[in-house]
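Chapter review: from sequence to fold.
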Amino acid sequence: MVTSFSSRILRAGLIAAALATTAGCARSTEGKDVAYVARDVESLYAEAQRRLDRGNTLVAAALFDEVERQHPYSPWARRAQLMSAFSYYIARDYNKAIQNAQRFLSIHPGNKDAPYAYYLIALSYYEQISDVTRDQKITEQAQTALREVNRRFPQSEYAADARLKLDLVEDHLAGKEMEIGRHYQRMGMWLAADLRFRNVVEKFDTTSHTPEALYRLCESSLALGIPAEAVKYAAVLGANYPGSKWYEKAYKLVNKHAEGVTAS
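The token string follows.
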């Protein structure tokens, strides 16, 4: 007797880290032994699970796909859809993981395993986040997907992890805004820089980049000829980050270039 699908997912989650390290090695041989063979649904599903447990993730995904293809009206087909998505995720084929999880949700939107499907989609975007020097479209997609998990299932274990990851995603997006803003400053494009730093302060105010953004706004305000704004940003820095190096720099900058000016 095969255990419940939820316990299968839990068990699979526990071995995910170990499988992730072996997935790359297994790829060279995967795909060679998934030729179509008609099998009863239990043995086909069990073989797929066995391959997943052994780290043959792409073979496992293909076999889970076969479960659905050969036995589309079986209760096993629903289980196999999500297990296929999970197998592709472990194999780092994130596009297929997203596609299969989305397909599962389109067919079974109210299923008890829907929270995990949403979470798997979010993880698949999250794992593709690149460094701040590159385009951040994937980061924004990860943010949207993580927010969806938190919105739909706020009391779930998936939402708790999604909230933690959202903090990291927002810090990443703020870092990108900072990088662009600093670039504009170096180019002497002070207004464009000012807008980027304002985005950080207004949209990502809980991230680690906020103190520097406030300091850069001091710089931009002085360069734009509005010292009162520089004084205002320095005051905000002093009130919220009194011990930071950015406040010390802002204090010196304002004393040097905006002495006697009051905040507007």
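Two observations follow directly from the output. The chain has two domains: 5-128, 190-257. The mean pLDDT is 86.
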